[in-house]
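Our platform keeps sequence and structure together, in a single record for each protein. Such a record has a labelled line for the sequence and another for the backbone structure tokens. The tokens are whole numbers drawn from a learned vocabulary of local backbone shapes. The remainder of this section carries one protein's record, kept here as part of the documentation:
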Amino acid sequence: MVAAGSVTNAVSIMKHLAGSPPLGVNAIARAVDLNPSSCFNIVKALAAEEFLEFDPATKLYRIGPLPARLFGAGRDLPLWKAWLHEQLDHIASHYSLSCGLWDVRWKRVVLTDVLDSPLSTRIHLSVGQRLPAYIGAMGRCVAAGRGLGREEIDAIMSELRWQAPPTAADYWQDMQAVHDRGWALDDGRYLRGVATVAAAIADRDGHPVHCLTSIFFSGQFDDGKIDEIGAALAAVARDAEQRLRDMP
């Protein structure tokens, strides 16, 4: 009975958060009539399994990515991913670079699809690869999408490992550029000799849930061509975002 009760309480918490803004433990406990200690244990377990997401800056919980992947979008999601695979394959072939689709989780991003460059000498990516959520070009997109403030960026930068670390001021400027052009560039900062262009895909609430990347060797393209690649990737991201939001 205890286990069944815990499941019932977990479902009640998720149902409530599905229709509310992010909430703290005490607010959730009041809403579903649980004592705060029991509520904390349940939301912590749900967050560990990605049913909920926890924002350490605000101490608030919201629905995580897993329920949507398990129950949302139904049969349309595989079609969406197949369409996106084709779009990334076109970019990879046209520009002779490697492309990837990443799932954005709270503290990390996970590679779920790879389109290799047609060149014999290329940068290889492996499905399942994980990176910190705020590192590199993707990190700038995720930070911009989550609306992080300057003080938060200062704290994050001290925790990340870069081969050629950007300053917090430069990272902040790159974040602002994401709002203007829809994509970010990391050229040799995270990994020397490697450049990455990234664009984020947001959910209906504006939270980044996926990232698209194009990865190539530093110096392979001039600035004009990099701008062209960034614009192409951002256009696919916006189209993918709209298609995702249009799903029932």
Summary: The longest helix spans residues 223-245. The CA atoms of residues 187 and 195 lie 4 Å apart.
